[in-house]
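Standup notes
- HV: blocked on the assembly model, inputs below
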Amino acid sequence: DAGVIQSPRHEVTEMGQEVTLRCKPISGHNSLFWYRQTMMRGLELLIYFNNNVPIDDSGMPEDRFSAKMPNASFSTLKIQPSEPRDSAVYFCASRRGLGEKLFFGSGTQLSVL
Amino acid sequence: AQSVTQPDIHITVSEGASLELRCNYSYGATPYLFWYVQSPGQGLQLLLKYFSGDTLVQGIKGFEAEFKRSQSSFNLRKPSVHWSDAAEYFCAVASSGRDDKIIFGKGTRLHILP
């Protein structure tokens, strides 16, 4: 299995631009999580899905952030418009079921100038 | 809602010395508890997990952790660290109910002295 696949690996953009991060979970996993990692705030949960349905999006910082999971094999996290304070590493992770361990992607390093 | 506290941001130990990384959690019922490790530029990898049963759990790379309900703690230990253990370590808690999100502590960065 290829593991959780995130793209792009690095993204550099200018303030105000739209950013779309992509994630392909491991086949057969029914939960998907988006996290954001910064030095100051650590690893923050943004949103998670069970069976493609968003369960908890209370960690999404503001309306500029949105996430979708149109099918079991694909999810996107979109920031529109982006701001410099959004600069961070964004991780996607999936798991097979309740209580199972998370498998993490390699992350997307986002820099908003 | 659950929460996790890792009180030590940085820990430095000498190679061959023992290690204990602290983790305290807050959750109303019995949680699922995890320790993950992150090497530079990488995602997180599971070291071990606790669901129920024996409160001392063994993980990979010689790590173990002990669940202490009375102290709401799940500390990670290793009897003798190796230089390759230098990394960032995260404690995580998941609820055992329908709201099964996984919350991470802010991490502890482990430095190893030669």
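- HV (later): unblocked. The two ends of chain B are 41 Å apart (CA to CA). Chain B is about 0% helix and 50% strand.
- Next: hand off to the docking folks.
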